[in-house]
Give the backbone structure.
Amino acid sequence: MTQHRAGTADQVIVPIGNHSVRETLMMPLVELGFDWATVVHPQAILSPSSVLGVGLVVMAGAIVGTAARLGMGSIVNCGAVVDHHATVEDFGHLGVSVSMAGGTVLGRGAWMQAGSALGYG
């Protein structure tokens, strides 16, 4: 259970691009029981059946498809596409205009460079 004290934040987020630094900073806060913000830009499109972890960021123009899963602390940058049933594991990072085809998996802490793609299979 989270204990709130006067002068503390209600929620926290660590929006740092380097996945190992982001994880290193997030994990002690997780252990302390902080509540995590999940930040989604109003111009991002998310399927109602997508599953979002805590402490993640989805930027403008991103598309997250049917039954896609975004892990804790992940980043989906501007214009990136996470197609149906694709998974971004914890602390994964999709660069600008990245495309993940349906059913693909980006591993824990993995980074996809701007403009890259994961194809089926």
Residues 37 and 55 are 5 Å apart (CA to CA). The mean pLDDT is 91.
